[in-house]
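User: Hello! I'm new to structural biology and keep hearing that structure can be predicted from sequence alone. Could you demonstrate with Cytidine deaminase? Please show me the input and the output so I can see what each looks like.

Assistant: Of course. The first part below is the input, the amino acid sequence of Cytidine deaminase. The second part is the output, the predicted structure written as tokens.
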Amino acid sequence: MTLEQLLERAKTARERAYAPYSKFKVGAALLTKDGRVFDGCNVENASYGLCNCAERTALFSAIAAGCRRDEFAALAVVGDTDGPIAPCGACRQVIIELGGPDLTIRLGNLRGDTRDTTAREQLPDAFYL
């Protein structure tokens, strides 16, 4: 699967977002090295601290299905933003821990703008235990 196809999958996941409060829908798609794809969308809650972002939804779904960090090939994330979407700080930390620092990330928006990066580039001073 190409990064463009993965981004299209993230766009489809975005449509499933539950965002009644912010109306800001985000989609993500996580590709494993063996070709499986795990979708994620943001899920809001009236108690904002209980919300979950699309990136974490995709990663947590993969982990729950039995995947481990060395099995991920790429992550695509998309939102309705002016430029390519930027993951929040919490997602950057989860991405680097579960995806590994060299995970390829394609960031995009609905206008077709994209940016390719890595987890390390997104969080150069990541926290590790």
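User: So the tokens describe the shape?

Assistant: Right, they're a compact way of writing down the 3D structure. Reading them back into a model, for example: Residues 3-122 form a domain with the Cytidine Deaminase; domain 2 fold (CATH 3.40.140.10).
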